[in-house]
Sequence to fold (334 residues):
Amino acid sequence: MARRGGPIITDAMRTEVQRILSETLKARKQRQTPERFAILDEVYATVGHFDADELYARLQEKGVRVSRATVYNTLDLLLDCNLVVRHQFGSKQATYERGYSYRQHDHLICLDCEELFEFCDPRLQAIQEMVQEIYQIGITSHSLQMYGNCMRENCPNRPAAGRDSTA
Amino acid sequence: MARRGGPIITDAMRTEVQRILSETLKARKQRQTPERFAILDEVYATVGHFDADELYARLQEKGVRVSRATVYNTLDLLLDCNLVVRHQFGSKQATYERGYSYRQHDHLICLDCEELFEFCDPRLQAIQEMVQEIYQIGITSHSLQMYGNCMRENCPNRPAAGRDSTA
DNA sequence: ATAACTGCAAAACATTTGCATACAG
DNA sequence: CTGTATGCAAATGTTTTGCAGTTAT
Fold:
């Protein structure tokens, strides 16, 4: 079945991602600010996908006072260390999810209700390798989304039940 | 090698896409305005990918007076009849390409110079069918991009030759 | 000390919207 | 005629930026 946004975080994992951020900052001669670690913590306390503004709101709720600018800056930083992954689903805002210790996966999205499923198929890896070979381009990442209409009875935007399904 | 944005348009093809638009408008009881057909023509006169603003600019240059709003509205309309396909590559603006009479393909993008290649692999169709079966979701479309670094000598944004590659 | 980071608000950007006018049916 | 489409400009919503003040090192 579809797993959503990775496993619940463990203490060991939290320590590990903090270490990764810390090392990256050290290597890049950037500062270890409390804001950066607070944002990292909140990202790893979040199950599933989120956007920059949701993350900002969640931080405010918890009393962590950071600005939106810092949230965006820090997300870029975490992107650089692969501690988050960014997706561009619709043409709307970017969504993010934790990037550490979670298998590569792709997304399946219901066009009516926006329900989101995750899947993984090894053939994609094979395609990637073949494309890399043919075009002589070192592929560093990919992004695959499939769009369709889900069968949920309660899918809020389905064409009215019992009618014909002409899209 | 990579084909970019489909074949040169023929008269027969132009007539056919005009017919498709015309039929769609008739079916939806919408008006056959000159703007809509002018935009369709310009889309099909365009080789490769373009964004809404490029299309708008090209129309202005040719003396076709349409507003940006109409360009956006018409692109949505053409999307509905599958006469154009929309892609969301970066997080920047959407890009479009002609959707009629051109095989389904996916994209390979150089992260440095944004050079864009197209490829097609039948295994993707197989993945799509399997995912559809597993999740019981009728898949209507997909979007796959691979990102990497191309080997072009003149790739404008390659890490400077001979230097270290610290980003 | 001092350069990097932050918060704030303004700017930037693509896209959408509201409304008065034009025009296809 | 009549309602749909258009053009214009203002609004929207997300992300970026400039700058003055803070703070990690």
